[in-house]
């Protein structure tokens, strides 16, 4: 049994080796400001899984790769991320930014029929944190202007900073509001 466990796996098929090498080359020689300089949780998707699947179908149907899928899919994903990016630059508040209210005015639990529960909490220094999702992901909020804050989106479709606006017992999360579903109502 021990001898079986020590056996080496057979090498990956040629198309998979080529794709893996191409992806590694792309990842390690990224242009300045891209994946090399981003934190791991903020890397943009490049379509690797899709490219592997499409290469598989090419080999199954044609016996060879018909298209270099990785650059094509990387451009598609990059376009989607760019379209999801906020038109407002939340990293730089306006010079005439209005002050935020006391943190207690924003804390609470908010509900949304599509996204579920959102909770805003404040630490002992008044810093706000937004918790979203069934296994809550925590997003520290940064004040932008008046009742508008922002946080850095994360995950596969991270698109930079997004806005969070509090108004009349609601909170609107800009990155979730593309289809007008991003407004949460206070419980």
From TrEMBL:
Feature: compositional bias, Basic residues = 1-10, 18-44
Q: Which InterPro entries match?
A: Peptidase_S12_Pab87-rel_C
Give the superkingdom in one word: Bacteria
Q: Could you tell me which residue ranges the Peptidase S12 Pab87-related C-terminal domain spans?
A: 93-170
| Region described as Disordered: spans on this chain | 1-44
Q: What is this protein called?
A: DUF3471 domain-containing protein
Organism (species):
Streptomyces caledonius
> Taxonomic lineage per UniProt?
Bacteria, Bacillati, Actinomycetota, Actinomycetes, Kitasatosporales
């Amino acid at each position: 049994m021990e001898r079986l466990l020590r056996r080496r796996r057979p090498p990956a098929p040629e198309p998979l080796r080529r794709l893996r090498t191409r992806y590694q080359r792309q990842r390690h020689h990224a242009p300045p400001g891209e994946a090399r300089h981003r934190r791991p949780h903020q890397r943009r998707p490049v379509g690797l899984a899709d490219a592997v699947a499409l290469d598989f179908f090419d080999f199954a149907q044609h016996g060879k790769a018909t298209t270099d899928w990785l650059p094509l899919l990387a451009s598609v994903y990059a376009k989607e991320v760019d379209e999801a990016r906020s038109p407002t630059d939340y990293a730089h508040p306006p010079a005439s930014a209005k002050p935020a209210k006391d943190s207690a005015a924003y804390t609470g639990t908010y509900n949304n029929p599509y996204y579920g529960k959102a909770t805003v909490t404040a630490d002992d220094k008044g810093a706000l944190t937004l918790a979203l999702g069934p296994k809550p992901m925590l997003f520290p909020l940064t004040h932008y202007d008046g009742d508008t804050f922002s946080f850095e989106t994360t995950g596969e479709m991270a698109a930079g900073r997004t806005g969070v606006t509090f108004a009349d017992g609601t909170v609107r999360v800009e990155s979730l509001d593309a289809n007008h579903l991003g407004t949460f109502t206070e419980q």
